[in-house]
Amino acid sequence: TCTFYGTANSNQMLMEFMGLHLPSSAFVHPKTELRTALVKQAAVQAALLAQAEHLIGVGEMLDERSIVNAIVGLMATGGSTNHTLHLVAIARAAGIVIDWSDFDDISRTVPLLARVYPSGQADVNQFHAAGGIAYVMRELLDAGLLHEDVHTVVGTGLRAYTQEPYLHDGVLRWRDTALHSLNDTIVRPVSHAFSPNGGLKLLQGNLGRAVIKVSAVPEANHIVEAPARVFTEQAQVIAAFERGELNRDCVVVLAYQGPRANGMPELHQLTPQLSVLQNQGYKVALVTDGRMSGASGKIPAAIHLTPEALLGGNIAKIQNGDMLRLNAITGELNVLVDVQTLQMRPVNPPDLSPHHHTVGRRLFTGMRGLS
Predict the structure, then answer these.
(1) Cβ–Cβ under 8 Å, residues 246 and 273
(2) Close Cβ partners of 82 (under 8 Å, ≥ 6 residues apart)
(3) How far is 210 from 206, CA to CA, in rounded Å?
(4) What is the pLDDT of residues 119-168, one digit of tens each?
């Protein structure tokens, strides 16, 4: 899909961990004979499944074990934070209830085995060449961190997904993946993981609940305690940066970006500016009820904060200068203001009329009109 390990490529990874792709096909480059062969084989496999005497449909393939495997894959590879929304919805469609506490519990157990941009310097092509999903899958299976006894599009059992495809005289075949990582700066075994914990973490406190992608954040920046600088539009943050007003320790608070208020626009435009501030030695972080996909990078970013501002969340009551504490080690996210003072503060929402909505908000509105 792209070389960046954001939401799109995290989707590819999840489908493989859930047994819905052909093994190790997620990151095969599109402009190759191997990709063409895999596309053709995928059609053949779909036809075979449809003709099977004991047909197992996707609705029967996916169960609690499949959902847990998907979360494990997300944590082990440092995938996109958007899947803390997507996987919850996928599970619910299957009649399975999960929430962010489940992600957090699994993250405490599953080690981080991959570093792919923005969590590292390698792109997904380099990750695939170093062993990729097949290698990660085998390491997790051998460590007892995945459910092996699941149904997949190639049969029963996840062990088939530890193999990689290749062409032999133009014929598509599979073989066992490399025994050792072909580049341990990109992918590592469980015994030598980048971190004993997974790529995402749950934050909780008097601001509510949020998620943070810690796989890319240097340990020195896992704790940020600094005064708030409050905004209600992404463009306001960029303008303040350009005026030099953020050249200090600060927590950028961007409210009214949640699904009810603004359709959760992508906030990855803020990553370059906040990265510059962090590189200059300032302690900076972002707190928002919006989303940042897989693009939060090395900036401590508490995103998807709920309850969102428009639904009465305390993020709407933060004022410039309030001290905020984000601690990705303990999972704390608090505004250091006493509860009574916080409750008595007035809330002044910005103009949320349609002309202020982002392209994403207009798109979602259009889609709802078609449904």
Answers:
(1) yes
(2) 7, 10, 291, 293, 294
(3) 11
(4) 888 999 999 999 999 999 999 999 999 999 999 999 889 999 999 999 99
Residue 172 backbone dihedrals phi, psi, to 5 degrees: -75, 125
Q: Which of 231, 241, 229 is nearest to 350 (CA)?
A: 231
Q: Which residues contact 220 (CB under 8 A, 6 or more apart)?
A: none
Of 236, 19, 195, nearest to 109 by C-alpha is 195
CB 237 within 8 A of CB 273: yes
Q: What confidence tens digit (pLDDT) does each residue in 90-125 have?
A: 999 989 999 999 999 999 999 999 999 888 889 999
Sign of CA dihedral 203, 67, 133, 140: positive
Whether residue 294 contacts residue 215, with contact meaning beta carbons closer than 8 Å, is answered with no
Amino acid (1-letter code) at residue 322: D
- Contacts for 193 with CB less than 8 Å, ≥ 6 apart: 111, 112, 113
Closest CA to 50 of 149, 153, 159: 153
Give the closest residue to 325 by CA, choosing from 258, 228, 184: 228
Which residue type, as a one-letter code, is found at position 129?
A: A
Structure-token match 């943070």, residue found: 212
Instruction: Return the amino acid letter for 150.
Output: V
Q: How many helices (H) and strands (E) does the chain have?
A: 13, 12
Question: Which is nearest to 234 in space by CA: 254, 252, 258?
Answer: 254
Predicted TM-score of the model (pTM): 0.89
Element (H, E) at 301: strand 301-306
